[in-house]
Design a protein that fits this description.
Blueprint lengths: L6 H6 L5 E6 L5 H14 L3 E6 L4 H6 L10 E2 L7 E6 L2 H12 L5 H6 L1 H9 L3 H20 L4 E8 H18 L2 H6 L6 H5 L3 H11 L1 H32 L4 E7 L3 H16 L4 E9 L7 H7 L3 H24 L6 E5 L8 H13 L1 E2 L8 E2 L2
Parallel strand pairs: 1-5, 1-6, 2-4, 2-5, 6-7, 7-8
Antiparallel strand pairs: 3-4, 9-10
Length: 371
């Protein structure tokens, strides 16, 4: 029998302030994230749930009309509290400018056409903004005690790696040629700022005098914004590599999902951290029957076929999980609910299944627990 990933212990651990869920598409990761957040809230914690999934189904399941960029209280939560929000890249970028730019230049930057173009087409914007948003929320939590736990629902796993790498890539971007050109203290625009008329005339001929003026305003203010981005990204990087953060991998019994889970375990290890555990969601139910019970059940062909099919399915799933998942990694199995996660009661049911968990066994007697 392998080690059980005790989700109840994770959400009860007051030294953990950030939980990052990762997994491939189609495994119910967003639903598991919501269920984990709700279970933590109803255990007495003050929780913020951040998702990058724009699907309306999560808002509906949480009893909200929609999810926006600002935290919204989830109604019907007892014990603690749960706020939910969706990553709004434009709003997060604007908030970063308000936070990092010189106070007297904020409006200039926000209205600037170069900023508007950058904020909507920045390569890797979602990853950078997810990092920035986590940093903003964590700073707010530390300053106000509004939350003591932040649950981050990342994109599907390969994109989640981009999220984890965003702080380092932001450093490389800031030191790269594009922003060196934009930086007035070090790049060619320093020449423009110094008033060299020949350079100014040449650039204005290429892009126009109005565009040149906009670029000068943008460049002179955005250097401080970029510095703020980098400082916050460095803080988030330190947070994610500390004991205050826990990574939870969500998979399903499908071979592709298990392979993704194993891949992600290895990628985390390469980055100097480990997964707290794996949640295998949507596991088939299986009932172990003695030979006498099987013989009795065979008198009812439909019931016997149902039992036999579920048993064969479970054994195939168990074999895949034993092969794919590292032996040393704690795992919990969560039974297939048999209905869509469409309201808070179902989210709560999934949370209860997460907390109760079930052990992945080596034997043929089925999973131990409620699976």
């Amino acid at each position: 029998m392998r080690r059980l990933f005790a989700v109840a212990d994770l959400i009860a651990d007051r030294d953990v302030h950030v939980i990052v869920t990762c997994g491939t598409g189609g495994v119910g990761k967003t639903s598991v994230s919501a269920a984990l957040a709700l279970a933590a809230a109803e255990s007495g914690r003050r929780v913020a749930l951040v998702t990058v999934d724009p699907a309306k189904r999560l808002a509906t399941a949480l009893g909200l009309e929609h999810l926006g960029g600002e935290p919204q209280p989830v109604p019907g939560v007892s014990g603690g509290s749960l706020d939910a929000l969706m990553l709004d890249m434009t709003q997060t970028f604007d908030d970063a400018v308000r936070s990092h730019a010189p106070r007297n230049r904020v409006d200039e930057v926000l209205r600037n056409p170069f900023y508007k173009a950058l904020s909507t087409s920045f390569s890797g914007t979602q990853d950078y903004m997810a990092t920035e948003k986590l940093g903003q929320l964590y700073e707010q939590a530390q300053a106000t005690s509004r939350w003591d736990l932040i649950v981050v629902d990342t994109p599907p796993s390969r994109s989640a790696l981009d999220f984890l790498d965003a702080p380092a890539r932001l450093d490389r971007l800031a030191e790269g040629p594009v922003l060196q050109v934009l930086a007035p203290s070090s790049g060619p625009l320093k020449l423009i700022g110094a008033g060299l008329s020949q350079v100014t005339w040449l650039v204005s001929k290429i892009i126009g005098s109005k565009a040149l003026a906009d670029l000068q305003v943008f460049a002179s203010a955005f250097e401080s914004v970029m510095g703020g981005f980098r400082r916050r990204a460095s803080a988030v990087r330190a947070l994610l590599s500390s004991p205050a953060a826990a990574f939870v991998i969500v998979a399903s019994p499908r071979r592709a999902a298990l392979d993704e889970a194993r891949f992600f375990v290895g990628q985390l290890r390469e980055r100097g951290t480990t997964a707290r555990g794996v949640v295998v969601n949507q596991v088939s139910e299986a009932v172990s029957l003695s030979p006498d019970a099987q013989a009795a059940l065979s008198a009812t062909p439909e019931a016997y076929r149902w039992w036999r099919t579920s048993w064969v399915t479970w054994r195939a799933q168990r074999a895949r999980m034993l092969t794919a998942l590292p032996t040393a990694l704690p795992v919990t199995l969560v039974r297939r609910l048999g209905r869509e996660v469409t309201d808070l009661d179902v989210v709560r049911e999934l949370g209860s299944a997460l907390v109760e968990g079930a052990v992945l066994t080596e034997e043929d007697d089925g999973p131990v627990g409620d699976v």
